[in-house]
Amino acid sequence: MNLQEEIQLTEFQLYFLLSDEQRKAYNYLLDRGVYCTTCGVMCKNGVNVTEIYLSELNDITIHGTCNACNGKVARVMEFGEDTAFSEKANNFRNALTN
Ligand SMILES: [Zn+2]
Fold it and tell me: For residue 74, what are the β-bridge partners?
């Protein structure tokens, strides 16, 4: 198996790859599941996402800023273990290179 590259996604591309359930999980994590090291707690007012990456393992990494303090935050969301998502992600990669 080839080692896959990390690629940057737009929010639109990410939404295309996620199922309805996963979109809910994604939005929930952005709202309540991102830890801010500056605030010392989970970002209270959510996160402003600036960059989204599809990792080598088809996990999603988001980078952004905490809406409460503007500090930088990041979070890995493990979607790669979901076979349906991983398959979609691989098809998406193929579409990009062909
Ligand atoms: Zn903060």
Answer: 63
